Amino acid sequence: NALFCLETAANEKENHVYTKALMAYAFALAGKEEKRKTLLTSLEKEAVKKDGSVHWQRPGKEPEVHLPYYRYRAPSAEVEMTAYVLLAHLTTQPAPSQEELSSASLIAKWISGQQNPNGGFSSTQVSCFLPSCGLT
């Protein structure tokens, strides 16, 4: 039933980027290769490509603050959704293609740049944007 709910939600025209990232990973885990690829193609169109790395951000996000002696780190939701896209690229059978590994390396570069001085990340949050499933 959960997979049916996700397939129904994936067919909606307007899905939040976080929802697409999470669904792409869920479909990868479920072995639904076509759905995974469709969502990754859609996500690619919304990717932020900057400084040789790739990530995803929420629509309408405030621009980054560039101050001397200050290293901007993305909000936890953006690190989280970008990590889901990375997992979706790497979770495929039999193994990720060379193209997917290349994409994954650009995503991993951005994620590693978000680490704090202790090697961790900002706190994570739990959120779901699947109103069709009754989850909010």
From TrEMBL:
Top-rank taxon, per record: Eukaryota
Every Alpha-macroglobulin-like TED domain range: 1-125
Listed GO CC annotations: extracellular space
InterPro entries cross-referenced by the UniProt entry: A2M/Complement_sys, Alpha-macroglobulin_TED, Terpenoid_cyclase/PrenylTrfase
Pfam families: TED_complement
Listed PANTHER family: ALPHA-2-MACROGLOBULIN, MACROGLOBULIN / COMPLEMENT
Protein name per UniProt: PZP protein
Gene that produces this protein: Pzp
